[in-house]
Amino acid sequence: MVGYTVNWHPQVNNLLQSKSGENLKAFLQQEKQARKIIFPHSNNWFKAFELTPFNDVKVVILGQDPYHNDGQAHGLSFSVPDGVTIPPSLRNIYIELQSDLGVVPNTSGNLEHWAKQGVLLLNSVLTVEKNSPGSHTQSGWVDFTDGVIDIINAEKQNVVFLLWGAYAYKKAVLIDNNKHLVLTATHPSPFSAHKGFFGCKHFSKANKYLKMHELKQINW
Predict the structure, then answer these.
(1) Which of 12, 55, 60, 88 has the fewest CB atoms inside 10 Å of its own CB, making it the most exposed?
(2) SS3 call for 39
(3) Assigned domain for 141 exists
(4) Which residues form the catalytic set?
(5) Is residue 1 part of a domain?
(6) What is the pLDDT of residues 148-197, one digit of tens each?
């Protein structure tokens, strides 16, 4: 399994070598042997960790699972590669960002520039079968990413967690809000953005919190 060792934090590899991690590895190998198409490419399964080292994490934006259509998923929650049509949820994120901070919407949906500033763009499930959303939810990825959240919660201070939608909000129980900032809103999808995502001002609130704790703000 490509990238089965992650140079991000010592405890991460303990998660991957656990019983759940071994089950995950077996599941992914089985999927490949069945010639199923998995997104993103295995080289990008741990891309979020490669672009945002543990010591640099200041904000966590939690997604559910990767985009399931051709060419979209590249290992970062809500992000798509340059040249790919911006998905509706990300388009709404850009609308809120413009309303909140006056940032003109990017013509690209590639969020690597956020990741390189300390925004961990983490999906709860890191792979998906083509055209089958949620297909890898029971694979073991959730144990792994919950473990990642536990590590951040325990070993860092003053991290901003942006939890959008009911699925992400469930992760709030893993986070100590006495030492971190947890911001919640509805999901930015077209079905729910008007029910609380628009107007949440999470980008300015995150930067205000980072500034208050003498951390460099994010150039959204």
Answers:
(1) 55
(2) strand
(3) yes
(4) 65
(5) no
(6) 999 999 999 999 999 999 989 999 999 999 999 999 999 999 999 999 99
